[in-house]
Automatic annotation (TrEMBL):
<feature type="domain" description="Aminotransferase class I/classII large">
    <location>
        <begin position="39"/>
        <end position="348"/>
    </location>
</feature>
<dbReference type="InterPro" id="IPR015422">
    <property type="entry name" value="PyrdxlP-dep_Trfase_small"/>
</dbReference>
<dbReference type="InterPro" id="IPR004839">
    <property type="entry name" value="Aminotransferase_I/II_large"/>
</dbReference>
<protein>
    <submittedName>
        <fullName>Transaminase</fullName>
    </submittedName>
</protein>
<dbReference type="Pfam" id="PF00155">
    <property type="entry name" value="Aminotran_1_2"/>
</dbReference>
<dbReference type="InterPro" id="IPR015421">
    <property type="entry name" value="PyrdxlP-dep_Trfase_major"/>
</dbReference>
<dbReference type="GO" id="GO:0030170">
    <property type="term" value="F:pyridoxal phosphate binding"/>
</dbReference>
<dbReference type="InterPro" id="IPR015424">
    <property type="entry name" value="PyrdxlP-dep_Trfase"/>
</dbReference>
Length: 375
């Protein structure tokens, strides 16, 4: 099985650690190990005492208990810890789908949500977000996409790259559709908790549907991508058994220091969420002003959740604009061609503390190019 190259990741491999300024990062502001350990007294002693032998295959029981606390109906034995969310996506696709199956996938989206399935011989139908409706999904369209071969529906909520968050009514309709057709509902929830208004938070899919698989990770909500820790939570014994067996051919078990540090982070979920959402709210106020000033150049639908938005360019193509911006200013944006969505949009990240400085560089660049064009 050979998936297509992951275009977004190949782009970041080239530019993420060489570009002077990142304005497309999907993860929020991170922290040092020292800052994380400072959240609990004696945490450094615990790290020193962490045993560096193999860890338990599904994740340390103490860690899984902390993860289970994020859900209403999930116990520690209904969780499998993975090395990042990407491994969990890969495992689900390889264990629960087979050649000849069909899946419906929320798009535009994260490439592994569909490329892994396609490489397995699974056909994919895009369930397209509608830009004119603020990147909303229409549940009524699902009945036009389902076939006798459909086995799963893959969604991302809060959504990467648009920041769209379904209403509870739309979410319930999605669950009802999956239940009606007996589908697996793979729900990428790595941004859950980063709702800009906490009142908008949806239930985890695994808490409301017996065939749902909720994907979580510490990289987005907690801002701790370097811990490389993700998980799936599900009530399905079949999914748990198959994915556990498949993990024997992947990482087998996880990093002991990472699991120890991750448990600390999970015990302080509320504080880390508040930290990250406060940065997002401040940055969004700046973006509101920025896009108001440059309404002739960009179309912007303000996200309701997460740390990224999807911006339409009214003048240049996304690839050309992004390449010229990077060359002249060192500011990195992500063109929509890298997520198989035409050449008119860029992904913009607003979860970092330095965004005001980077946005000012972009502002100056736009003013300069306007002046150059006018002259």
């Amino acid at each position: 099985m050979q998936p297509n190259p992951f275009k977004l990741e190949r782009y970041f491999a080239q530019h993420e650690f060489t570009a002077r300024h990142l304005l497309c990062s999907s993860d929020p502001e991170s922290m040092s190990i020292g800052e994380l350990l400072a959240l609990e007294p004696d945490a450094m002693d615990g790290l020193r005492e962490t045993w560096l032998g193999y860890t338990e295959y599904p994740g340390a029981p103490a860690l899984r208990r902390e993860i289970a606390s994020l859900y209403k109906r999930i116990g520690e034995n209904e969780i499998i810890v993975h090395t990042g969310a990407q491994e969990a996506i890969y495992s689900f696709m390889n264990t629960m789908l087979t050649a000849g199956d069909h899946v419906i996938v929320h798009m535009p989206g994260y490439q592994s949500h569909y490329s892994v399935a396609e490489a397995l011989g699974v056909s994919v139908s895009p369930w397209k977000a509608r830009e004119e409706a603020g990147w909303a999904l229409d549940p009524d369209e699902l009945e036009t996409l389902v076939t006798p071969a459909t086995r799963a529906l893959v969604i991302c909520a809060p959504h990467n790259p648009t920041g769209y968050l379904p209403s509870r009514e739309v979410f319930d309709a999605i669950v009802a559709f999956a239940r009606k057709h007996g589908l697996w509902l793979f729900s990428d929830e790595v941004y859950r908790g980063l709702e800009h208004d906490p009142a908008d938070r949806l239930p985890a899919a695994c808490d409301v549907y017996e065939r749902a698989i909720s994907l979580g990770a510490l990289s987005k909500t907690h801002g701790l991508a370097g811990l490389r820790l993700g998980w799936i939570a599900t009530k399905s014994a079949q999914v748990l058994a198959r994915m556990s067996t498949f993990k024997d051919y992947l990482t087998i078990s996880n990093s002991a220091p990472s699991e120890y540090l991750s448990a600390i982070a999970l015990r302080h979920t509320d504080a880390l969420i508040e930290r990250n959402v406060s940065i997002v709210r401040a940055n969004l106020r700046l973006l509101d002003d920025f896009f108001a000033r440059h309404a002739d150049r960009f179309a912007w639908h303000r996200p309701r959740a997460g740390t990224i938005g999807f911006v339409r360019l009214k003048r240049a193509g996304a690839e050309r604009f992004s390449a010229e911006l990077l060359e002249r200013t060192g500011v990195l944006l992500l063109p929509s061609t890298l997520i198989d969505h035409g050449d008119a949009h860029v992904r913009l990240g607003f979860g970092r503390r330095n965004m005001p400085d980077v946005l000012a560089i972009l502002d100056t660049y736009l003013d300069a190019t306007d002046t150059s064009t006018a002259s």
